[in-house]
Structures are given as C-alpha cells and as structure tokens.
Amino acid sequence: MARDATPSDLTITPRDRRFGRGVRTERWWNGGDPVATALYNALSATFPKGEAFFVESVRLFRDGANPKLAAEIKAFTTQEVMHSREHMQFNKRAHEAGYDLSALEDRVDWRLDLVRSRPPIASLAATMALEHFTAILAHELLRDPRHLAGADAETAAMWRWHAIEEIEHKGVAYDTWLHATRDWPRFKRWKVKAKVMLLVTRNFVVDRTLGSLELLRQDGITGPGAWARLFWFAWVRPGMLRKIFAAWASFFMPGFHPWNHDDRALIEREEKTLSAQVA
C-alpha cells in the first residue's frame, strides 16, 4: 500500500491574486512565439471546466476523511476555484486577441461527459492522475525559467502563481483516493490507478496537441511545419514533456506518493519572486 507521505506541517494556502485586469494581452504573449503561445493557451482552455471537475470529484469522497485531509480538501477547493476564475479571465483575453477557443472547450466537455458517465470513483481516479500530471508540469515550469522566457510579466506571474498552488496541493486528490479505496486489495488499487494514468496521459497528449494545432491554424501555421515546430517546443527545447518523464514514471512505482518528492523549497523561492514583483 502506498503510504501517506503528505508532510504533517504542510499548509495549503489559497493566494487570492488577480492578473491582467484592465490590460491587453498580446496575441503571441509567450516570447512572441506562436507555438509557445498556442501550447499554453490550449492548456488554459481546459482549466475552468477541468478544475471544477476536480473539485466535484474530490468532494464526493470527503465523508469520513480525517480532520487533516478534510481541511486540505477545503483549501484545495478554494485554490481550484480561484484558478478557474483567473483562467477564465485569461481565456477571455486570448479571445480578445483573436483566438477562438470554442472547439477546445467543446472537447473538454466531451471528455468530462465520458468520465461522468462512469461511477464516481472513476472521476476521482482521473482527478488523481491529472493532479499528478499538473503537479509535475508545475514543478518543471518553476524549475526552468526557459519555459516562460520572454513571456509578458503579468501572464508569466499568473502561470507561476498557479504552478505554486498546484505543487502545494498535489497530494490532496491522491490522499482522497487512498481514503476512498482503503478497503481495496493492494494490487487492484495499483492496477486501476496505472490504467487510468495511461489513459489520462494518452488523452492529455492527444488533446493538447490537437488544441495547439487548431490555434496555430488560426495563425495560418499548418501542415508538417506546424507539427514539427510544436514537437520541437514540447519535446526537445525547452522540452517540457520530455523533462517530466521520470516524475511521470514514478507514479507506477511501489510506495509512490506525490510528496515522496518534497519540493516546498521551490514554492518558497517562487513566492519570494512573486512578492517582489507585487512590491
């Protein structure tokens, strides 16, 4: 059985920040690069509805949780609600810059409807896997400044703020999964979570690729050139998806828990940077 490795002194702190109000975000806000912009815009298109789904899935299994986990679920909910709010605003600015995100949002609806057609434990399992995925993406985003090199300051600050909180609450869905499946045999628990992670990974890569290509099409970038440029950015340089592979693979190891890797020092460093920007 995977152990509960969430640090006993961890505090999940909702940071009520607002970004980009009353300002115009450039169409290619990420370093003037349409490919970098497309990938992050495609990811942002998933967040308002996706994070509402995460909250819904976790809260269904909070009954009987110990007081610490119950408090973490409450803080997780608050953080996710604010993330949805800020990405709704960001997506609005992307629309004002000339992008149509409706096809991407419709695909999110389709994916979520498929999951919701299954028993609630399937929604929790998908949330657990996706929360690990977002946490390791967030870690890499903060670890290597090249991912947002050249991005406008306000938008980069929003992504870093979001990443800080994704890391901070990375154990909540997993601990809720452990609570919900506490009576399952060890192998059944591992088999289900492994199958769900493989499916989630496939869908994540396919959907974000298609979404990015759609936004590039709206910029007049199509065909093999669009595929090649997107592949290079995502997998080679700066290569976000390549760099998270080891952390992704750790999910399948015996004794896995998101907090087996304690990266609170990264949170502390980034909070200081954001506080200096605000000042």
Describe the overall structure.
This is Metal-dependent hydrolase. The protein is mainly α and 279 residues long. The protein is built from 12 helices and no strands. The chain starts with 33 loop residues before the first helix and ends with a helix.
Q: Could you say how many structural domains there are in total?
A: 1
Please bin the fraction of helical residues. Answer: 55-70%
Structural class comes to: mainly alpha
Q: Which CATH class is shown?
A: Mainly Alpha
Q: Work out the strand percent.
A: under 5%
Unreliable spans? none
* Count of helix runs: 12
Mean pLDDT: 95
Pfam families: Metal_hydrol (PF10118)
Organism: Allosphingosinicella humi
Protein name: Metal-dependent hydrolase
SSE order and pairing:
Layout (H helix, E strand, L loop, with lengths): L33 H11 L2 H13 L7 H30 L5 H15 L3 H24 L9 H16 L3 H9 L5 H33 L4 H14 L3 H4 L1 H5 L14 H15 L1
Helix pairs in contact: 1-8, 2-3, 2-5, 3-6, 3-7, 5-6, 5-7, 5-8, 6-12
